[in-house]
C-alpha cells in the first residue's frame, strides 16, 4: 500500500470519533474486564460471533431500495444485503456475468425487463431483482459493458451495440456507426463517443445527432451526475451537458453519480483506497475492542465495525511510501512498516510513535518480520547495521537470494518496548536456516533444514542460552522443504509458532503441497510430522493458526490449529469461484465475498451439502467463430523435405544445433545461442528465417545477424511481433513490442521489416504514402500517428541497414470502449485512411491527415460479413474504394471440411481488402493454421520457431491461388491450393 499523509488523526479506541488536530489518544489492546465492559456498554458494538458471509462494497452494485437494502451481483449470484450482511439470495442457482437496472424513465410497473442480466452471449430479463430471470435471446458476442439509453438498457459487445426494452423482447441492434461508448441522461438527451474520438449529441431521443467534437475535444468517458451529462476529457478537464443541451465548463457537477452506491457519510475509510474496509480487515486485520477489527489502509490505521463494514476511526501514520501491517504482541499492538531503505516498528498504544528502525540498503530479499501472535516479534536480520552477506547456498549452488527459502543467520527479537536481543547461528547452521520463530523475553527458535533425506551426526535440538536450534533433514519423510519458493517475500509472516513445551507447529514450504505449503508439527525432540490436507485441495490461504482450503470441487475447509485438523464450511452465497485469496484472524477474502469469523469448535461445523461441480478454471475458452470463411481445396500433392536432428526452421543442407527459439509473428522464427547474455552484451549470431509476406512460392529467407546489433542488454528476445504496412501491391512489416528485448535490428537487417529505429507499440498498421510510412500504433487507450522516411538504399538480407527517422505527427485519444475495434490502414485514391471494424463486421472509415496525424469524420463502410473475393464480378474497381491492410485474429477462417486435416488456429492473420460503402473485396490473405496431418503431437500449442499458414491471392478472374505452408524443426511441407472464394 502506498502511504499518503492524512490531514487529521482520530483515536482508534473510540467507536465513533471526530477528527481534530489534537494529538491522538493512546491506543490500548483489549484485555480482561475493560474489553468486556466496553463491549456491553457500546450500543454499536459488533462481535465476530458465528462465521458469516458478508458483501464488501466493492461488489457489482445495482441499486439501494427505499428500505436501505442493497442489491448487487456477487460472484455471479443475485444477493440483497443490509450493511455488510447478506439477507437474501435468488432462489435459482443461475450465475451471471453482469447485471444492471433499466433507466427509471423507461420502466413501467412490473416491467418484464426491469433488470437486465447476461451470461456469455445470452441476455435475461427479470421483473424483480430476486425473481425469475427469463431469456430474451442471444447476442453475437459476450457483453462487455452496459449503459442507459433513451428507450432501454444498452449493451456493448465486440460485435455491436444492442438495446433491451424494459417491456422485454429480443435485444435490437443500435445503428450508430463507430459507437464506442454512449450514455443517456433522460428520454431525449444522450451523448455518443465514436471509435475515432468524435462526439455526437442528441436532444430528441436519437432521431438526430449533432457533432459536438469541437466542444468536447479528446473526450474519453461519460457519466451522469444529477441531471447533467459529465464528460471527462483527456487530462483533468471535464465538461457538462445540461438539460438544454448546452456544454459548459464553468461549474462543478452536482448530484450523485448514477449507478454508483451512495456515499456513506459515517464511513471514515479513505475513498481513494484500492480495497474496501472489510477486505482489508480480512486480509491483514486484528481483533480489537468490542469485536471490531484493526487494519491498515493508505496512510492510516483504521478501526472497522465488522457489522456495518465502516471504518469508525482513523489514526494517521506519517510513513511516506512504506508498506505496513498491524500485529499484536504480549504487551500491546504494533505496526511494522517497510520502505526501500528501512524497516520500522511503531507503537500504536502511543499514537504511532516509532519504536525501532532497521537499515535495509543492500539487504537480501527475505521476509522482514516474524510474529508469534500475542507473544513476540522478530526482525530477520541484525539489530544494528546492515544485513550481513548471505552464506553460500550449498543445496542450490546458486544465489541464495534468488527466491531461495534460506534466511538470515542473524535474528533480532523484541524483548520489551525498546529492548531487542540479537541471535546469531554458528557457521555450521548458517547456510541452512529456513525459518526463525520469536519467543517471549527475547528468546528465539531457529529451524535448520540440512540437505539430504536423514540427519547424520548432527543433534536434532541444541539449546544455547535463549536460542534454540531445531534441525531436520530437508527431505526427511514426510517433509519436502523446497530449496526455492515461488511465493514472494512478505513484510510480516505468521507461518510458525512454538508451544510452551517446545513443539513447532505451522506451515513450511513444500514441493508436494497446494500453494507450495504443508502443515507440519515438529515435536520437542525435533521429530517432524506432516498433517494431511483435505482431499483434492488445490489452494490454501493461511495466517498463523488460521487457514482456508479449496478443493477441486469448490468445497471449502477451515483450520484454526495450524493445519492439524480441517472442518468443512458452508460455501459463500454464490455459485462462483470460491478461491481463498488472503486470511487473517478476522476472516478470509473468498472471491468477491468476505467470511467474517472462525469456528473454534464452539459452534457445530457447517457441512456443505451442495453437490460437487467441476472447476471452470480448467476449461479451455471457446474461440469466437469467424465472420466469413475462406473456401479452398487441395490443387495437387504436397512436397516436403526433412533433415534429422536439426532445430532450424525448415530444411537446411546441414543440421542446425539446438538453440533458444523465438517467434517472428506467424511467418518466421529465430534461434539465439544458448550461452546466454554476457556482462558486456550478447555474443554470437542469431539465425533468422522467415517466409516473405503473401508470397505463394513461400521460400525461406535466411540471414545470420550478430547479436551485438542488439547492443548491451541482459534480456533475451523471445518474440518479435509484427505490424503490417500496405505498400502498393505489397504488404511489408514493422517490428512491434513483443516478449523480451526489442529485436528490431535483427529482423531489420534480415530484410523482413522496414527499419524505423526500433519497435513500436502492438498492434500497428500503416501505409506507404509517397516517400514516408504513416503508422497508427496502439488499440484503445492512447494511440499515436507517426511518420518514417523510407530508406533510399536497397537492403540485402544479413547486412546492417540505416533506420529511417520516425517522427510523431500526433496523438489520438480514443474513448473508453474503442478497444473493441480492430484497425486497418491504407489509401483511398492517393489519400491515407484508417478503418475501424468490430467483431460483427461493422466498419467505418476516417481520412488521415498525413501532416498533422488527425482523423476526420467517420464514414460507414460495408460490413465485413459481406466479404467477397476480388475476382467476383461484384468487385469491379470503383472510385471510392479504399485499399487497406487489416490484421485480425478470428474474423476470417477456413471453410470447415474444405481442407481435410487443416483448420484455422484463430490466433493471427492479415488481409488486403478493397472497401467501399457498397461492398468489401478480398485481394489477398495470410492465415495461421494447424495441419493435423503433419503435427508431431496433439494439442493447441504451436512451439516457437515453426510456421503454419495458408497464403491465398485473388489477382485475376476465376478462383484464387493459394499455398499451404508447414515449416517445423528441420522439415518443410508445401502444398498448392485452389481457393474458390468466401462462404458464410
Structural summary, described in words:
Keywords: Signal. Residues 21-51, 246-269, 599-623 are annotated as: Disordered. Residues 1-22 form the signal peptide. Helices cover 3% and strands 41% of the residues. It has four helices and 73 strands. Mean pLDDT is 85; it is low at 1-46, 392-402 and 676-681.
Q: Regions with pLDDT < 50 over 5+ consecutive residues?
A: 1-46, 392-402, 676-681
Helix run count:
4
Radius of gyration: 33 Å
- The overall pLDDT average reads 85
Specify the structural class: mainly beta
- DSSP strand tally: 73
Question: What is the 3D form?
Answer: globular
Short note summarizing the structure:
With 984 residues, the chain is mainly beta. 3% of the residues lie in helices and 41% in strands. Among the domains are: 183-258; 628-983, no CATH class.
Task: List the defining traits of the structure above.
single chain, 984 residues, mainly beta, 14-stranded mixed β-sheet, 10-stranded mixed β-sheet, 73 strands, globular
Element layout with pairings:
Blueprint: H1 32-41, E1 52-54, E2 60-64, E3 70-74, E4 77-82, E5 85-89, E6 98-101, E7 115-119, E8 122-126, E9 134-138, E10 143-149, E11 152-157, E12 160-164, E13 172-173, E14 179-184, E15 190-194, E16 199-202, E17 210-211, E18 219-225, E19 228-233, E20 238-241, E21 247-248, H2 277-284, E22 286-287, E23 293-297, E24 300-305, E25 310-316, E26 323-329, E27 332-338, E28 342-347, E29 353-359, E30 369-372, E31 376-379, E32 410-416, E33 419-424, H3 427-430, E34 433-438, E35 444-450, E36 461-464, E37 467-473, E38 492-493, E39 496-498, E40 504-509, E41 517-522, E42 528-531, E43 537-543, E44 546-551, E45 556-559, E46 567-569, E47 580-583, E48 587-590, E49 593-596, E50 628-634, E51 639-642, E52 660-664, E53 668-672, E54 685-690, E55 701-706, E56 719-727, E57 730-736, H4 744-750, E58 764-769, E59 772-777, E60 783-789, E61 806-812, E62 822-828, E63 831-837, E64 843-847, E65 859-861, E66 868-869, E67 882-888, E68 892-894, E69 902-915, E70 920-931, E71 947-953, E72 960-968, E73 971-983
Parallel strand pairs: 30-38, 35-37, 50-68, 52-56, 56-58, 66-70
Antiparallel strand pairs: 1-49, 2-3, 3-4, 4-5, 6-7, 7-8, 8-9, 10-11, 11-12, 12-13, 14-15, 15-16, 16-17, 18-19, 19-20, 20-21, 22-23, 23-24, 24-25, 26-27, 27-28, 28-29, 30-31, 31-32, 32-33, 34-35, 36-37, 39-40, 40-41, 41-42, 43-44, 44-45, 45-46, 47-48, 48-49, 50-73, 51-73, 52-53, 53-54, 54-55, ...
Amino acid at each position: 500500500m502506498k502511504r499518503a499523509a492524512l490531514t487529521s488523526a482520530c483515536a482508534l479506541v473510540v467507536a465513533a470519533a471526530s477528527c481534530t488536530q489534537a494529538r491522538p489518544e493512546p491506543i490500548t489492546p483489549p484485555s480482561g474486564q475493560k474489553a468486556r465492559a466496553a463491549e456491553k456498554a457500546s450500543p454499536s458494538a459488533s462481535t465476530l460471533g458465528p462465521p458469516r458471509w458478508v458483501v464488501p462494497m466493492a461488489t457489482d452494485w445495482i441499486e439501494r431500495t427505499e428500505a436501505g437494502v442493497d442489491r448487487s451481483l456477487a460472484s455471479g449470484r443475485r444477493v440483497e444485503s443490509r450493511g455488510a450482511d447478506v439477507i437474501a439470495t435468488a432462489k435459482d442457482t443461475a450465475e451471471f456475468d453482469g447485471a444492471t437496472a433499466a433507466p427509471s424513465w423507461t420502466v413501467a410497473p412490473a416491467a418484464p425487463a426491469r433488470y437486465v442480466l447476461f451470461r456469455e452471449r445470452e441476455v435475461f430479463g427479470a421483473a424483480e431483482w430476486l425473481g425469475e430471470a427469463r431469456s430474451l435471446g442471444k447476442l453475437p458476442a459476450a457483453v462487455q459493458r452496459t449503459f442507459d439509453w433513451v428507450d432501454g438498457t444498452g449493451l456493448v459487445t465486440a460485435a455491436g451495440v444492442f438495446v433491451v426494452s424494459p417491456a422485454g423482447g429480443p435485444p435490437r441492434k443500435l445503428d450508430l456507426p463507430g459507437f464506442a461508448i454512449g450514455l443517456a441522461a433522460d428520454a431525449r438527451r444522450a451523448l455518443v463517443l465514436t471509435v475515432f474520438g468524435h462526439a455526437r449529441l442528441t436532444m430528441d431521443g436519437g432521431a438526430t445527432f449533432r457533432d459536438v467534437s469541437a466542444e468536447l475535444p479528446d473526450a474519453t468517458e461519460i457519466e451522469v451526475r444529477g441531471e447533467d451529462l459529465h464528460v471527462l476529457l483527456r487530462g483533468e478537464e471535464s465538461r457538462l451537458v445540461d438539460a438544454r443541451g448546452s456544454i459548459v465548463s464553468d461549474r462543478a457537477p452536482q448530484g450523485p453519480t448514477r449507478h454508483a452506491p451512495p456515499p456513506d457519510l459515517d464511513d471514515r475509510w479513505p475513498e481513494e483506497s484500492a480495497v474496501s474496509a472489510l477486505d482489508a480487515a480480512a486480509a491483514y486485520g486484528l481483533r480489537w475492542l468490542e469485536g471490531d477489527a484493526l487494519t491498515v489502509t493508505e496512510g492510516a490505521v483504521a478501526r472497522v465495525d465488522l457489522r456495518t463494514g465502516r471504518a469508525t476511526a482513523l489514526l494517521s501514520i506519517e510513513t511516506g511510501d512504506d508498506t505496513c501491517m498491524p500485529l499484536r504482541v504480549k504487551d500491546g499492538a504494533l505496526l511494522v512498516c517497510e520502505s526501500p531503505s528501512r524497516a520500522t516498528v511503531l507503537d500504536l498504544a502511543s499514537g504511532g510513535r516509532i519504536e525501532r528502525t532497521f537499515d535495509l540498503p543492500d539487504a537480501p530479499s527475505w521476509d522482514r518480520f516474524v510474529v508469534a501472535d500475542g507473544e513476540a516479534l522478530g526482525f530477520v536480520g541484525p539489530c544494528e547495521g546492515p544485513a550481513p552477506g548471505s552464506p553460500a547456498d550449498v543445496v542450490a549452488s546458486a544465489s541464495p537470494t534468488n527466491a531461495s527459502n534460506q534466511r538470515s543467520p542473524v535474528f533480532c527479537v523484541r524483548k520489551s518496548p525498546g529492548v531487542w536481543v540479537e541471535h546469531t547461528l554458528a557457521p555450521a547452521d548458517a547456510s541452512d536456516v529456513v525459518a526463525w520463530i520469536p519467543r517471549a523475553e527475547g528468546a528465539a527458535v531457529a529451524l535448520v533444514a540440512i540437505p539430504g533425506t536423514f540427519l547424520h551426526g548432527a543433534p536434532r535440538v541444541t539449546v544455547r542460552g535463549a536460542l534454540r536450534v531445531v534441525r531436520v533433514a530437508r527431505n526427511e519423510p514426510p517433509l519436502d522443504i523446497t530449496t526455492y519458493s515461488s511465493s514472494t517475500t512478505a513484510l510480516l509472516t505468521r507461518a510458525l509458532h512454538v508451544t510452551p513445551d517446545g513443539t513447532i507447529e505451522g506451515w513450511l514450504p513444500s514441493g508436494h503441497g497446494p500453494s507450495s505449503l504443508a502443515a507440519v508439527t515438529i515435536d520437542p525432540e525435533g521429530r517432524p510430522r506432516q498433517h494431511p490436507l483435505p482431499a483434492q485441495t488445490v489452494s490454501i490461504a493461511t495466517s498463523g493458526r488460521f487457514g482456508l482450503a479449496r478443493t477441486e470441487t469448490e468445497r471449502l475447509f477451515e483450520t484454526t490449529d495450524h493445519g492439524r485438523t480441517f472442518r468443512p464450511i458452508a460455501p459463500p452465497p454464490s455459485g462462483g469461484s470460491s478461491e481463498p485469496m488472503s486470511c487473517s484472524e478476522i476472516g478470509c477474502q473468498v472471491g468477491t465475498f468476505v467470511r467474517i469469523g472462525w469456528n473454534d469448535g464452539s459452534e457445530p461445523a457447517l457441512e456443505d451439502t451442495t453437490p460437487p461441480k467441476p472447476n471452470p478454471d480448467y476449461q479451455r475458452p471457446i474461440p469466437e467463430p469467424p465472420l466469413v470463411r475462406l473456401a479452398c481445396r487441395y490443387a495437387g500433392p504436397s512436397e516436403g523435405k526433412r533433415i534429422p536432428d536439426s532445430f532450424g526452421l525448415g530444411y537446411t543442407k546441414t543440421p542446425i544445433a539446438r538453440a533458444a527459439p523465438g517467434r517472428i509473428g506467424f511467418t518466421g522464427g529465430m534461434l539465439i545461442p544458448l550461452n546466454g547474455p554476457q556482462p558486456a552484451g550478447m555474443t554470437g549470431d542469431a539465425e533468422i528465417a522467415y517466409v516473405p509476406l503473401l508470397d505463394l512460392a513461400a521460400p525461406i529467407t535466411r540471414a545470420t545477424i550478430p547479436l551485438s546489433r542488439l547492443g548491451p542488454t541482459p534480456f533475451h528476445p523471445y518474440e518479435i511481433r509484427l505490424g503490417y504496412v500496405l505498400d502498393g501491391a505489397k504488404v511489408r512489416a514493422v517490428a512491434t513490442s513483443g516478449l523480451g528485448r526489442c529485436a528490431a535490428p535483427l529482423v531489420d537487417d534480415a530484410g523482413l521489416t522496414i527499419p524505423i529505429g526500433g519497435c513500436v507499440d502492438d498492434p500497428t498498421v500503416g501505409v506507404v504514402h509517397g516517400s514516408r510510412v504513416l503508422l497508427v500504433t496502439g488499440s484503445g487507450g492512447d494511440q499515436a500517428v507517426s511518420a518514417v522516411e523510407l530508406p533510399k538504399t536497397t537492403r540485402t538480407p544479413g547486412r546492417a541497414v540505416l533506420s529511417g527517422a520516425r517522427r510523431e505527427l500526433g496523438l489520438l485519444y480514443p474513448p473508453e470502449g474503442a478497444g473493441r475495434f480492430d484497425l486497418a490502414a491504407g489509401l483511398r485514391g492517393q489519400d491515407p485512411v484508417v478503418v475501424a471494424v468490430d467483431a460483427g463486421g461493422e466498419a467505418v472509415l476516417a481520412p488521415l491527415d498525413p501532416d498533422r496525424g488527425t482523423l476526420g469524420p467517420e464514414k460507414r463502410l460495408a460490413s465485413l460479413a459481406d466479404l467477397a473475393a476480388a475476382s467476383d464480378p461484384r468487385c469491379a474497381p470503383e472510385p471510392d474504394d479504399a485499399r487497406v491492410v487489416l490484421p485480425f485474429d478470428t474474423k476470417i477462417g477456413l471453410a470447415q471440411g474444405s481442407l481435410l486435416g487443416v483448420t484455422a488456429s484463430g490466433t493471427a492473420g492479415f488481409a488486403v481488402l478493397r472497401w467501399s460503402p457498397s461492398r468489401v473485396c478480398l485481394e489477398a490473405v495470410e492465415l495461421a493454421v494447424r495441419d493435423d496431418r503433419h503435427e508431431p503431437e496433439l494439442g493447441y500449442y504451436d512451439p516457437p520457431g515453426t510456421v503454419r499458414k495458408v497464403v491465398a491471392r485473388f489477382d485475376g478472374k476465376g478462383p484464387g491461388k493459394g499455398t499451404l505452408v508447414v515449416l517445423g524443426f528441420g522439415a518443410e511441407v508445401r502444398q498448392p491450393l485452389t481457393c474458390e472464394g468466401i462462404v458464410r
